[in-house]
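Late entry, evening session. Most of the bench is empty. Finally got around to the prediction I had been postponing all week. Sequence below, unchanged from the version circulated by S.P.
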Amino acid sequence: MTRKLTTVAAALAMLVTMLGTGALAAPDQSDRARAEHQRIVDFWTAERISQAIPRDFVFDGTQFRERPPRPDRPGRGGSKGSSWNGGGEVTDTTGKVLFEMGGFYYVCSASVATESVSGRSVVVSAGHCVFDETNVQFATNWMFIPDYDAAPAPIDTQGNFCAQTEWGCWTATSLVVHEGYATAGGFNDQAVRHDWGFAVMGLGGHGNTHLDSTVGSQPVSFASVSTGTTVSAFGYPAAGKYNGSDLIYCQGPVGTDALTANTTYKVTCNMTGGSSGGPWFAPFDDTSGTGTQMSVNSYGYTGDKSMYGPMFNTDTQSTWNAALTANSNAIVD
């Protein structure tokens, strides 16, 4: 009897040890992740959301400058910047981003990317919507709201903003950029050639679910497209005649930017600040709203009705691969 009791006691002691080091660790980690997600959701009060401005870079003939938003005024986008009324996958997978950087609140655009890692969702945006190239630090309080078209306008200040949206909100657990952007020393020619960033998203939404399994995703290509290929660009511009609550698209033949030695893309488009980070697709199916992402909205030139974006390449793919395993913010070489 003594031997049996000793064996049982030893087994119980081992079980307690296993629970303490393993089984209990997972719930603790899950609880911490959920608490951090809720902290960021709670951080974005109606007041802070109303203070968020586009992070928009425009070359003024001398240098790239971060342009403050112009006062909103009513108006409709033309053929090179129109409301997307086609529905389909792109409506759900494209969204608005809220983040804090350098003491300011900002808005950008982003899109859910298709990956094959179980239990992980990744969003692609512009590098300047993820990383502060001047102060050399990552953005904080990074939150993605898919299908922002369906967000309440105006925001109900008495309610939870995310609870009022179509799908809810997801928050980033890790942000990943390429060193070509992080070490540029400012928004310059080096930065624009590497102006992409990836955000690893934790569980969120209305049901504590994975982002991609909830709203879908779009594949990403790291191969360049030929000049003249038709591209479709999407985003949530929030300056000028746009109010930041309407998914806008541009569609036309792609060219290149001679001022960056043809190392970045160009498409005729009058989207304004707030659209940064929105996806470019080639090809794109207007009926299903599905396509392959090959760039993002990045920058413009004063007086030029065009949008420019980086060429996704092997450096982009390296950044992407790092995002598939990242458990913290990372700069990829």
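Two things to note before I forget:
Residues 2-23 form the longest helix (22 residues).
The longest strand covers residues 104-113.
Will write this up properly tomorrow.
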